Amino acid sequence: MIPLSWYLLLSATLFSIGLIGFVIRRDLIVMLMCLEIMFNAVNIAFASFSYYNSNLTGQIFVLFSIAVAACEAVIGLAIVLALVRNTGINHSDEIVNLRG
Amino acid sequence: MEKYYILILLFPLAGFLFNILIGRFISPKVVSWAGVLSILGSLVVALFAIAQVFSGKTIEYNIYTWILSDDLKVSFGYLIDQLTAVMLFVVCFVGWLIHIYSVGYMHGDPGYPRYFAYLNLFVFSMLMLVMGNNLVMLYFGWEAVGLCSYFLIGFWYHKKTASDAGKKAFIVNRIGDFGFALGIFLLFINVYALNYTDIFPKIPGLQGHTLNIFGWNIDLITLIALLLFCGAVGKSAQIPLHVWLPDAMEGPTPVSALIHAATMVTAGVFMVARLNPIYGMSEIALAVVAITGAVTSFFAATIALVQRDMKRIIAYSTISQIGYMFIGCGMAAYGAGIFHLYTHAFFKALLFMGAGSVMHAMAGELDIYKMGGLRKKMPITYITFLIASLTIAGIPGFSGFFSKDEILWAAFASAKPYGKFIWLLGTITAALTAFYTFRILFVAFHGKFRGTPEEFKHVHESPPIMTVPLIVLAIGSVIVGYFSIPHFLEPVIPKPVFAAPHEQERVVMTMSIIAGVTGILIAGYIYIVKSTVSARLAKTFSGVYKVLWNKYYVDELYSFLFVKPTLWIAEKFIERFADIKIIEGIVNGIPKLIYKTGLLIRPIQTGQLQQYAIFMIAGIIIFVLIILNI
Amino acid sequence: MNPLIEQVFYVYFFISLTILSIAVIASKNIIHSAFFLLIFLLHVAAIFLFLNAEFLMIIQIIVYVGGVLALFIFAIMIMNIKEEFRHKRFVKFSIAGLITGFLFLAGLYIFLGTVKSPENVLIKSDVNSLGKLLYSYYFLPFEILSLVLLIAMIGGIIIAKKTPFDREGK
């Protein structure tokens, strides 16, 4: 029997790796992929909670999470597309218009 | 019926508001009608009030309670007794005549509506001063007339001399008013009342009280009386605060007639008479009043001997005559002082308006040595001026004789040790008064014209709107003396105590007549018979002449003692140091501080998205750690 | 199932998912990253299967792999990113990022070590009961989710539309 904490550790590890990747990479699209990694880590956590508490609510939540993640990927990519089309920039550290 | 007397105050106020707000947009004719009619309305209602007072009633009415706070109750109310009735008549009647005169005098002036507005405001303030039944209304009116005087003296504000004169008048007035305010405060602290009817019964209770100042015990009533007198000195242009009145001649001549002859400058005398219970209890204060009055009147008369500007001579004459009024009050003959106020209003206003008429004809020229022989071309002005001069010289039959004689008799017959000295000074001044007044008459109206023939052709008599008031005032100057004011005022003003037998009054009367006639004869001799004498006299006594011509150098003294040091401090210390360094340092320094702080914090926002993400994560970690540790 | 096999599978998933995600974030080539992401998603679907959530597995494969990842590949293709010679992968402040991330991970590990594991586990789950739950208790979020999807669709189209300026000229 695998304890719940192991799945949660797995989820935490994946989430942190996704977080580190989001903060480190310059490429905008890779940043979006790291967001997807984070989402999936959270889905694993929800699903494991659902399994260990024998409650189907966790799976419903995963459903919603997947749907919302899909929407967010759409919008994110659209923004990146518009950005690249207008300015030709596709690296995050070159977009500094909102600098103080 | 009593509450309708507030209309006396409201009519001029309405005239002021009307003219100041919409005077610009309506024709001058409407402006002048509004100004004159408002004063006429006041006069009519005042006559009703005076009629009631004649029948022996005193009117007191409180309109509105302004401040009600524990012990302090200040209300707007009026008290019309015999004294107020006299003042009401003077202000309204002479004021009305001067308004009519101004319609002609100020014709065509671009500031016409403003002039009438301010003149109405002045009458309102003066009426408030005389009609008030408490010290606060007195002070309010006091300050307001000072303010209107400033407005009207500096009426032609484009001229630097005029605006400077206005400032000088207001500032010198303010210095006196400071003492006045201190007097009112001191009085209030001790009697806790401000209405006249509440104060006067409590004054005898204050006798003997002293105030301890820096170790000296000063009698309280004397101190109050002297402080109040400070205000009178400033307002009525006595020594040492007389310097503003000659400069005030920069204003239009009707203003000089109304404010600086008949009404505002007599407010000091009115105040002393109104508060006579206070003055009556302090010998020292009465002595100060009398001696100040005597010295001022002599002093101003000597200056007037050598001046060349017609209005300035009459201004010094005003200072001198008010000195007489203060002599009367100082000798506890308040009735005589008010009597002289009453007659003086008529003849002094007449003198000023005559001078205005001459100015009108001479295209603004005022130097009497540029005029001459005007009586042929300006008969009405000449005759009224002659009547006024005879009155001021104290010739029997005219009103000035009666009032001046009362004062000199009170001085002579008083029990005080300095009484006879003041009488002597007063009689000499009477001679001087006659001299300089007839000097104007003879130099300007007799003899040959000293200017160019074209100017002489331009000389014309003034239009009827200006001469009719002159005639009315001349008639008044003659007849008002026959109505015994001191007798009328007896219910409110105590009679003076005479320490000399009544027969000596004839002697005193004769002496003053001789003084007056002597003055006239000498003036006639010097200026008509032998006109070279004056030049020779000036050369022989050139030192004295120079001092008199420069008005005893008082203005220069004040400039040296007060004006220049103040300006020096203001510029060097206050402006350079306090203003620029400290205040501007703070005012500029705070934004600079904020800016610098902002500059320090600014680099946090780099615009890099991931850096913000790192900050967020760090924040979450810290937050969770804090929560978990708790 | 045999606990040992479970643990073997768990270890395998742990290692592979970790390596795959590191590969996603550390690849030079974007397409490589995309494919590593694909394998990652399939592994996650396998974990769902392990947790007795078959419906989720199917949905994961259909939506994520078939939808989102395809979208990523299309986007990379459309954007025509010119591969610069030796372009930098990481931002300047990556050290700060790494440290913060490790701190985060450490914090999570410390916290999650204390989680207790309950005994009764989900035996089986079927779509029927999932659907019953979805359409009764979670009906409102379901409807709102449909709205969200609609808006995301419209928004995506509007943002990524070619403006008339882009159409001509360029």
Number of strands of chain C: 0
- Give a short account of the largest sheet of chain C: none
| Low-confidence runs of at least 5 consecutive residues of chain C | none
Tell me the structural class of chain A. mainly alpha
Q: Give the CA-CA distance, first to last residue of chain A.
A: 54 Å
Biggest beta sheet summary of chain A: none
InterPro entries (chain B): NADHpl_OxRdtase_5_subgr, ND/Mrp_TM, NU5C-like, Proton_antipo_N
GO cellular component, one term (chain B): endomembrane system
Organism (chain B): Thermodesulfovibrio yellowstonii (strain ATCC 51303 / DSM 11347 / YP87)
Membrane topology (chain B): Multi-pass membrane protein
Characteristic key phrases:
heterotrimer; A: 100 residues; mainly alpha; 3 helices; C: 170 residues; Four Helix Bundle (Hemerythrin (Met), subunit A); extended; NU5C-like (chain B); oxidoreductase activity (chain B)
Task: Describe the secondary structure blueprint for this structure.
The complex is a heterotrimer of chains A (100), B (630) and C (170).
Chain A: H1 4-24, H2 28-52, H3 57-87
Helix pairs in contact in A: 1-2, 2-3
Chain B: H1 6-22, H2 28-54, E1 59-69, E2 72-80, H3 82-105, H4 112-131, H5 135-153, H6 160-191, H7 196-202, E3 210-213, E4 216-219, H8 220-235, H9 244-247, H10 253-262, H11 267-274, H12 276-280, H13 283-304, H14 310-330, H15 334-361, H16 379-393, H17 399-413, H18 419-445, H19 453-458, H20 464-479, H21 485-488, H22 504-529, H23 533-540, H24 542-549, H25 554-601, H26 609-629
Antiparallel strand pairs in B: 1-2, 3-4
Helix pairs in contact in B: 1-2, 1-4, 2-3, 2-4, 3-4, 3-10, 3-15, 3-20, 4-5, 5-6, 6-8, 8-11, 8-13, 10-15, 11-15, 13-14, 13-18, 14-15, 14-17, 14-18, 15-16, 15-17, 15-20, 16-18, 16-20, 17-18, 17-22, 18-22
Chain C: H1 3-26, H2 30-50, H3 54-79, H4 94-112, H5 127-136, H6 139-159, H7 164-167
Transmembrane segments (chain C): 7-26, 33-51, 57-81, 93-115, 135-160
GO cellular component, one term (chain C): plasma membrane
GO molecular function (chain C): NADH dehydrogenase (ubiquinone) activity; quinone binding
